[in-house]
Amino acid sequence: MALTEYVGLATLDVDSREVEIASYSVTDMTGRKPVKTMNRTGRIKGFTRGLGQFEIKATAVIPKGGTPINWAEIEGAKLTIEPLGGGKRISYLDCFTIQVGEQYDTENEAKIDVSLIAIRKVEE
């Protein structure tokens, strides 16, 4: 049985600083919306094509020392996912913050939860 290659590294580039991401999830929001009409069937008639976007939820470990990042003011950031041992990198470009939260767990790690919207996805 062959081994499976897993994604190895996710980083967020903010103002020329690289932040390692502990976990992330990406949702592709297609922009499609149902068209609701008053018809006899009581069902939607179809859909419209709107503007798509990528919704990203990322968790980063807060580094000790250095210049702190203003997480709520992130604009124009880049999230890059790199597979171990080669392969295509996936980058989400022009990211901006929509929500920020903090957490502290039993392993003595302070983490920051950031919700971002990305405008573009690029395979490099």
Low-pLDDT residue intervals, each spanning 5 or more residues: none
Average pLDDT, rounded to a whole number, is 87
Number of helical runs?
Answer: 0
Query: What portion of the residues fall into strands of 2 or more residues?
Result: over 45%
Give a quick account of the main beta sheet: strands, pairing sense, barrel closure.
6 strands, antiparallel, barrel
Brief characterization of the structure:
0% of the residues lie in helices and 59% in strands.
Question: How would you describe this protein?
Answer:
Helices cover 0% and strands 59% of the residues. The protein is built from no helices and nine strands. It has a six-stranded antiparallel β-barrel with strand order 1-2-5-8-7-6. A two-stranded antiparallel ribbon has the order 3-4. Strand 6 (75-83) and strand 7 form a beta hairpin. The mean pLDDT is 87.
Strand and helix layout:
Elements: E1 7-14, E2 17-29, E3 33-35, E4 46-48, E5 53-61, E6 75-83, E7 90-104, E8 110-118, E9 120-123
Antiparallel strand pairs: 1-2, 1-6, 2-5, 3-4, 5-8, 6-7, 7-8, 7-9
Please name the defining characteristics of this protein.
124 residues; mainly beta; Elongation Factor Tu (Ef-tu), domain 3
